[in-house]
Design brief:
427 residues, 9-stranded mixed beta sheet, Rossmann fold, 22% strand, 2 domains, 14 helices
Length: 427
């Protein structure tokens, strides 16, 4: 695949070198077009060395080939990262005063903008309007990641990790990196986010799930060529372009949507944080704090076991379907995280169980994860650590390996910082 990689003038330009390497190592031909400002952060020599192609940002170089026309027409994909506020504004208003902006106007394939800037710039009304314009014209604009920015500030505006950008880019073209898992022609249903169980019109019982891991799984499955249906409860991150989105709120709503979607799915991944309990009744009006009546007592009732129900339905109808569960566990005096996970795998009967230890400032809402993938068929546990995109890629590889009856080599597992062997307790 021929890719044009535009690099904007932000400090996050250094991360794009890793993105370029991901593209080239997957066998794609990449032409880098840096803006003049971006070369103050990363020099032309770096882009030429990593891409293997000459690099320029001047429309008057190699004039006889009319570079902006040729590159725009030939590119199967354009990626702009970091897409600064200035670049977004230029693209939205059709400005054409350098090689990158003119090539964007000539692009005939999909275009992915990956913004990175300070929070106030990202949230400014002008930037938001430019983003809306680009999306309305068919461009894909990722939401920036949250976290530490330049200096002491934190907030939305960070460039997403290169692996996440890589997956999103390939999802736009329906291609797959060489040697990676392939789910082409398969339908994958994924649940993500945390359910909310209403107490009254204002309050609810919820959990700390951000939905990041489920969304990363959706992006990884898309990159592997699957048709992806994402059933999402409360999310704190945007969903990938290209998924079939179903929004729910409560565990009962998620159950109904998932059972319906599972009927024509080859793979079901239950990554949502589903509430085990819900209030036995929800008030139609806000529950008031009053001195003349006793404080309310909330009685909880158990929610259905969706994962076990999916397995039962699959087995009863003799479907050829893989079902993957997630277990967010904590240890206690009666056992560690792995003890509880192994018991859950036996009890639920799913094919794979992805288990992680959770807690305050651990897993929920974080950008990294550490999991053990357990296999009902008795294969050795697989430990995976890294970004949530890397964990998602490892899960998708395991799904592909299970479907084809083979398991990844150690080399393939090592690409995701994974290794096989007896899993150590997570606590």
């Amino acid at each position: 695949m021929r890719i044009v990689l535009g690099v904007g003038g932000g400090i996050a330009a250094y991360k794009v070198a890793s993105l370029l390497r991901l593209f080239t190592e997957a066998g794609h031909s990449v032409t880098v077009i840096p803006t003049e400002a971006s070369t103050r952060f990363v020099g032309v020599a770096t882009w030429e060395a990593l891409s293997g192609h000459p690099v320029t940002n001047n429309v008057f170089d190699d004039v006889q080939n009319v570079n902006h026309v040729r590159l725009g027409h030939e590119a199967d994909l354009m990626v702009v990262a970091p897409a600064t506020a200035d670049l977004l504004a230029k693209a939205a208003t059709g400005q054409a005063n350098d090689l990158l902006s003119t090539t964007l106007l000539m692009a005939r394939g999909p275009v992915l903008f990956v913004p990175a800037m300070h929070t106030e710039m990202w949230q400014h009304a002008a930037t938001r309007a430019n983003v809306a314009t680009l999306r309305a014209r068919g461009g894909t604009v990722l939401e920036p990641a949250g976290g530490r920015l330049t200096g002491k500030d934190s907030g939305p505006g960070r460039l997403p990790e290169p692996a996440e950008i890589f997956a999103a880019a390939l999802a736009l073209t329906g291609t797959n990196p060489s040697g990676a898992a392939s789910l082409a022609g398969r339908t994958v249903t994924i649940t993500a986010g945390g359910t909310r169980e209403p107490l009254d019109p204002v309050r609810f019982l919820g959990n700390r799930s951000s939905g990041k891991q489920g969304v990363a799984l959706a992006a990884a499955a898309l990159a592997a060529g699957a048709r992806v249906r994402l059933i999402c409860a409360h999310l704190e991150v945007p969903t990938p372009a290209g998924v079939e989105l179903v929004s729910v709120e409560t565990a009962l709503e998620l159950r109904a949507a998932t059972l319906d979607a599972a009927a024509d799915s080859d793979v079901v991944i239950m990554a949502a944080a589903v509430a085990d309990f819900r209030p036995d009744r929800s008030s139609d009006s806000k529950i008031k704090k009053r001195d003349d009546v006793a404080d309310p007592v909330i009685t909880l009732v158990r929610n259905p076991d969706i994962l076990a129900e999916l397995v039962h339905e699959r087995n009863a109808r003799q479907r050829r379907q893989l079902i993957i569960g997630f277990a967010a566990e904590t240890g206690d005096d009666h056992g560690n995280v792995l003890d509880y996970a192994l018991a859950k795998l036996t009890r639920k009967g799913c094919d794979l169980l992805v288990v992680n230890q959770v807690g305050v400032d651990r897993v929920f809402g974080q950008d990294r994860n550490e999991v053990v993938i357990l296999d009902r068929g008795g294969k050795a546990p697989l430990e995976v650590s890294g970004s949530k995109a890397e964990v998602a890629a490892a899960v998708v590889r395991e799904i592909d390996a299970r479907r084809t009856g083979t398991w990844p080599s150690d080399a393939a597992s090592n690409r995701a910082n994974a290794h096989r062997g007896p899993a150590r307790p997570l606590d």
